[in-house]
């Protein structure tokens, strides 16, 4: 009883500590509840205008300088959505194979056993170097990578794609290696007993088994890549984010909402598709009798 | 004399000479000696924890003896290099207790991996994605023989426990082994199916001429189908002979709890 009381006491202290930390942060950043309210009538008007525009998205350009024969705004928006999709897909196409290689190197599932001396030392070095590399590339956000690449390569689609692919390879690779390491090893042991080599066991015994989880996670990351790819528009890469940014700068809020609705529609469609894939993959692996 | 010894070696699958295998303080297999000749059908019997699984793991070379000499198909195991060990294992089929199938691959993909040890990584990968016609035909025939030919392209995790067991047997047959070792192959199926499975293993051994060594906790099944029983108790061999020779005294020695063990159980 005493131990239990002690445990609850500890929890109480942790919660109190977190609350105190929050208050310290808020105080040092100068946060007050008053900050939630727009400071003056001009900001009030702008906020009101922005949310009113949500009910009335633009079906035509608000900018009067757009020539009459320009493509309609909804078509521009749809093209922007597809550009966003293309970036995300391209980045994932680079990131998944890279992550598979990094995930393999950063996993211990394929190490031969028993393995001693020099081999073990080399394998451990490979393991740590690949893990370190993965954490390095994912510790820098894609927006920062994009700024670096844009200043090095100029505004090019390739720069945007690599900027997106790099941190995604790091995150995917780390999770891949963990999913692979967590997979049950009974099939691997059985294949080893009939003469399969370590890399072979990884390829035919462990990887296929981890595949449903790898696919599910890759799909989730694809959804993240879509959002990130839209955000890359804000640093000048041509995705739907760029159109949102340009319209927003000119206070064309109704145009902003047209683009936002198209973006939301795409994300919802991709989410539904992903949920369908997850359901299919997981009902079929759940039925294992052994 | 040496000629005789040579003949005896040539015709034996396993020669075990005073072999001991330890886990820390526990001697899971303790000073065991016997020989299994080519084509023989042997049942390892004994209560759980008697060392049967460890013995199977010694025979399939996944464990190396701590003491004694183990010769598998004329190869002394302790002196083999890892590469030689792998080559030897391609001739030893093992059906582990939990079958060791890859659950989300199809039956044909699992069975084709039986030859993987000989074929190497790239060929195995190709086999999984694009099985050759010859392999598909052979595997279909094997699945037909074990009674699940309609499951060729079914994913293993959608099959029943009994059907999965058949896939594991088919994988072992496709391996074209010289020896088939099975660890408690019937521990997870009902009695009628257990009998069918043991019968099937014995028939396949006779048809293909491979040595069969099966660990069983069901004494009745072992007596019905196997011409030779090896009984283990606490890592020792307490019986080695034909089922007819197994007296009720031997059975007591095998299965009856000693006072000491009853204390542990209580």
Dominant shape of chain B = globular
Q: State the share of residues found in helices of chain B, binned by percent.
A: 40-55%
What is the arithmetic mean of pLDDT of chain B? 90
Alpha-beta classification of chain B = alpha/beta
Count of β-strands of chain A: 0
> Largest interface, per-chain counts?
A-B, 27 and 41 residues
| Counted beta strands of chain B | 10
* Distance, first to last CA of chain B: 54 Å
Question: Any overview of this molecule?
Answer:
Chain A has ten helices and no strands. Chain A has helices at 2-29, 41-55, 73-105, 117-139, 142-153, 157-182, 186-193, 198-232, 240-249, 253-285. In chain A, helix 2 packs across helix 10 (253-285). The longest helix of chain A has 35 residues, at 198-232. In chain B, a hairpin with a 2-residue loop joins strand 9 (228-233) and strand 10 (236-241). Chain B has 266 residues and is an alpha/beta fold. Chain B is built from twelve helices and ten strands. The model of chain B has no long low-confidence stretch (mean pLDDT 90). In chain B, helix 7 packs across helix 8 (161-174) and helix 8 (161-174) packs parallel to helix 9 (191-208). Classes of the chains: A mainly alpha (290), B alpha/beta (266). The A-B interface holds A 112, 186-187, 189-197, 199-200, 203-205, 208-209, 211-212, 284-285, 287-290 and B 60, 62, 82, 86-90, 92-94, 96, 98-105, 109, 113-114, 116-118, 120-121, 124-125, 128, 155-161, 164, 175, 188.
Q: In short, what is this structure?
A:
The complex is a heterodimer of chains A (290) and B (266). Chain A has 290 residues and is mainly alpha-helical. Helices cover 77% and strands 0% of the residues of chain A.
